[in-house]
Write a structure and sequence with these properties.
The protein has a six-stranded mixed β-sheet with strand order 2-3-1-4-5-6, with helices on both faces. It contains 19 helices and 32 strands. The chain folds into four domains: 169 residues, P-loop containing nucleotide triphosphate hydrolases (Rossmann fold), CATH 3.40.50; 87 residues, Beta Barrel (Elongation Factor Tu (Ef-tu), domain 3), CATH 2.40.30.10; 105 residues, Translation factors (Elongation Factor Tu (Ef-tu), domain 3); 129 residues, Arc Repressor Mutant, subunit A, CATH 1.10.10.10. It is 34% helix and 28% strand. The protein is elongated. The protein has 638 residues and is of the alpha+beta class.
Length: 638
């Protein structure tokens, strides 16, 4: 267990820890000279339990609240210290508000310096403390009158802390490792050392980690957990790590950085949160207010954008977006505390819902519905509410980072469906996935009704017509399933419903019978539309209309404007391209020109047509066949 102190300056926090543990915590020269705690202090001791307990001593002065926040983010139990002679003071209230905002629900109160006051004063301050705690989540926390000088009450407080250690819920070890760095220093003969609280997972000597948000890779050379040398450390412990990395220097690491497993490395500057403004505030919080944002051990400036309304009254709750002035690391459920622009007072705080928030004001109502779904505590709680609105599905890798939940620990709801796409797997609700396929078929039916003379649209046109809101990879997955299920058929590049065909009228059939021999006889060099019209003594527009209709049927392919090739001829040319790649490894325009015995311009036109229909892909002045091309597969089968 990690215990952190809280309370007003000079209320005896450091002296109390010495009385409890028999040890003097970290004391800097300036602190000894001034007689106050300025930065975080650390010590480890056994209170009677098997494992050592870690203690974090925080400064009580109002100027050092940012240091207090850096230490308080990782504690399991707070020891709120109130001096009997002073009673409840301003930093008592502010520290308590911060503890509540951080979601810490385990607390004991030490009423110190009882050796300086009479019994009635002890009763009076005890009543003050009970009144202070009553409105909040720590109401009923036990109060222990103690004296660090005489030792009175210390044994009872120590016993209560041991009981709390048994009751504190263990942090999740099945997540990826993440540690909030609160100190970084260099040790002669050892190198760079960082310390902090492990929030999740476990780490071993030899592991590779990322320094977030920078993303620099480091290796763990040595470990201390709870001040003891070990080979492995776990969530809930104070950990010191000796790090090695290419040209790694202590100056490159700051308080507020994180050590995370590579799977969690993803810096962010935009966080969607649920935010509460303290009731003690004297005025409304306005949209776009500049603030100090405390996240883990980091203190970063930024602005708060309210997603519901232009201002928030004291004691109010709202969904908001934080826009940070520097990159940060966060996962769902992390606690944030906001202080005013001058860092003089605490405004409020909340919980991270989405650490990778999209730009605000886009589809605001839909976004608010997503944030309401994200208000649950676990991935299992959230997925059933989140899946129905995810038209493009949910990306498992992003969810893994967002919630710090490795895939093997997930329990997907029965209605979840995992679909493979060209961008990797996506999760859909079964009903949503079925709706997308039905929408595609219904849109194609409307297309046929509005364009009866067309066989159907190509892939990209159908996407724009039917499902423009889908990412291309998701649309292609929907289309592939519809094709495999027989809901949609493809004739060349054209997509249509089963049974839908374009039929030539009698006049068009007669004209086709006259021009088709001319197209076949010319083989790789068919006549242009104007030449066909001249040869047959037919209006040019009639020929053009018929050839376009035949291309929609799939009997012809239009290479460039007014130049049409029979589909069989295109397939012969595709065979030439495949043979060229088999022999030379690549396709070059000059070699293709010589093989088909056409001019350079026509050869380039044909190769560019093959690029467009997905047979080839160009790399500089060379091309290679795309193995996922249906035309290439058909040609190889032949």
């Amino acid at each position: 267990m990690i215990i952190g102190t809280a309370g007003h300056i000079d209320h005896g926090k450091t002296a109390l820890l010495k009385a409890l543990t028999g040890q003097q915590g970290d004391r800097r020269r300036e602190e000894r000279q001034r007689g106050i705690t300025i930065d975080l202090g650390y010590l480890y001791a056994s209170l009677g339990e098997a494992d050592l307990t870690g203690f974090i001593d925080v400064p009580g002065h109002e100027r050092f609240v940012h240091n207090m926040l850096a230490g308080a983010c990782g504690i399991d139990c707070v020891l709120l210290v109130v001096a009997a002679d002073d009673g409840v003071m301003p930093q008592t209230r502010e520290h308590l508000a911060i503890i509540e905002l951080l979601g810490i629900r385990c607390a004991l109160v030490a009423l110190t310096k009882i050796d300086r006051v009479e019994a009635p004063r002890i009763a009076q301050v005890s009543a003050q403390i009970e009144s202070l705690l009553q409105p909040g989540p720590l109401a009923g926390a036990p109060v222990f009158p103690v004296s660090s000088i005489t030792g009175e009450g210390i044994d009872a407080l120590r016993s209560a802390l041991v009981e709390q250690a048994a009751a504190v819920r263990a942090r999740r070890e099945d997540g990826h490792f993440r540690l909030a760095i609160d100190r970084a220093f260099s040790v002669t003969g050892t190198g760079v050392v960082v310390t902090g609280t492990a929030f999740a997972g476990h780490v071993s000597v030899g592991d590779e980690l990322s320094l977030s948000p920078a993303g620099r890779t480091v290796r763990v050379r040595g470990l201390h957990a709870q001040n003891q040398v070990c080979e492995q450390a776990r969530a809930g412990q104070r950990v010191a790590l000796n790090l090695a990395g290419d040209r790694l220097a202590v100056e490159q690491i700051s308080r507020g950085d994180w050590l995370v497993t590579p799977e969690l490395q993803a810096a962010t500057r935009r966080l969607d949160i649920e935010f509460s403004l303290l009731p003690s505030e004297t005025r409304d919080l306005r949209h776009w207010t500049p603030v100090h944002i405390h996240l883990g051990a980091q203190d970063v400036t930024g602005r708060i954008a309210l997603l519901e309304g232009e201002c928030l009254a004291p004691g109010g709750h709202v969904h908001a977006q934080l826009l940070l002035d520097a990159p940060a690391h966060a996962v769902h459920g992390d606690r944030v505390v906001l202080r005013d622009q001058s860092a003089q007072r605490t405004l409020g705080g909340g919980r991270v819902l989405d650490p990778f928030a999209p730009p605000r004001n886009r589809h605001r109502h839909a976004r608010l519905a997503v944030l309401r779904a994200l208000s649950g505590d676990t991935l299992e709680d959230i997925l059933p509410a989140l899946l129905p609105s995810a038209l493009n599905g949910l990306e498992p890798a992003l969810l893994e980072r967002q919630f710090n939940r490795p895939r093997h620990t997930w329990r997907l709801p029965d209605e979840a469906l995992e679909i493979s796409t060209r961008l990797g797997p996506r999760l859909f609700e079964r009903g949503t996935w079925d709706y997308l396929g039905q929408s595609l078929a219904a849109s194609l039916q409307r297309f046929h009704e509005s364009q009866p003379d067309e066989l159907g649209p190509d892939r990209d046109r159908l996407r724009r017509y039917a499902l423009p809101q889908l990412e291309r990879a998701i649309y292609l997955a929907v289309l592939d399933q519809a094709l495999a299920a027989g809901m949609i058929e493809a004739s060349g590049p054209w997509l249509h419903l089963p049974g839908h065909r374009i039929h030539l009228n009698e006049e068009e059939e007669v004209l086709k019978a006259r021009l088709w021999p001319l197209l076949e006889a010319a083989r790789f060099n068919p006549p242009w539309v104007r030449d066909l019209a001249s040869a047959l003594d037919v209006e040019e527009e009639r020929v053009r209309h018929l050839l376009r209709k035949l291309s929609r049927i799939g009997e012809l392919q239009q290479v460039v404007k007014d130049l049409f090739y029979p589909d069989a001829t295109i397939r012969q040319l595709a065979n030439q391209v495949l043979e060229m790649e088999r022999q030379s490894g690549v396709i070059r325009a000059a070699a293709f020109r010589d093989q088909v015995q056409l001019g350079r311009k026509r050869s380039i036109q044909l190769l560019e047509h093959f690029d467009r229909i997905g047979l080839t892909r160009r790399f500089g002045n060379e091309r290679k066949v795309r193995r996922d091309s249906a035309l290439a597969s058909d040609a190889e089968l032949r």
